[in-house]
Amino acid sequence: MEVMFKADNIKKNFNIKKGLRFKRDGGISGRKKYVKAVDDISFEVKYGETFGIVGESGCGKTTLARMIMQLEKPTSGKMYYMDKDITYLKHDQLKLFRRHVQMVFQDPYSSLNPVKSIYYLASEPLHIHKTINNEKEIKEKVRFTLDSVGLPSSDEMLSKRPDELSGGERQRVGIARALILEPEFIVADEPVSMLDASVRAEIVSLLQHLQHFLMSQA
User: Fold this and answer.
1) How many domains does the chain contain in total?
2) The CATH number of the domain where 183 resides is what?
């Protein structure tokens, strides 16, 4: 089975300053310390596979997800997508990478811009990547994607803002936003941890259904 993503000895250290001391010239300095957020992680994700990273709160799962998406840069190690080194992508290369790799964020309350409409939020990736240039076709794509994640695609829904939706509905919008570019690889950062228990099963079932559907279309 083809390997889509590979992490090779990934590490991420965050610099902190612990303690203060006064210098003779009157200045203040701190002793540099490091927090090991991710410490020597290696794994492979194959095409069509669901791969889970399991660990307690604060063990580095979110940091690892952010490194995969190039929102954080690793201190050392390498990352590969489809056999290409993506560890330190810049500008156009990074934009192309995110055309094929998208993320569902953990918190549906902070990951959606509260002043933008659902239509704006869902269609934004299409405008950024210019995969569709016709506004009518963009709207059709948004409606289709909202339908696919179990949300109404009515004009009323498109005009709403995130604070008018429940947590589960917001997370479905986040999933729709990640899916609308038809990515090959999706990074999901604990996509149900911020939701009520009654909603979690629905979102997990939705993700499994979408995975099976996308695999059948490949």
Assistant:
1) 1
2) 3.40.50.300
Nearest-5° angle of CA 177, CA 185, CA 35?
A: 90
Provide the whole-model pTM.
0.85
Asked whether residue 150 is domain-assigned, the answer is yes
In a domain, 201, yes or no: yes
Residues of the chain with pLDDT below 50 are none
Q: What is the DSSP string of 112-170?
A: S-TTS-HHHHHHHHHHHHTS---HHHHHHHHHHHHHHTT---SHHHHH--GGGS-HHHH
Domain residue limits at 137: 89-218
Closest CA to 143 of 130, 129, 160, 155: 155
pLDDT score, position 209: 83
Q: 38 in a domain, yes or no?
A: no
DSSP 25: T
Residue 162 inside a domain? The answer is yes
| Residue 188: other Cβ atoms inside 10 A | 19
Which pLDDT score, from 0 to 100, does residue 214 have?
72
| pLDDT of 104 | 94
Residue 130, CA atoms < 13 Å, CB-side half-sphere: 2
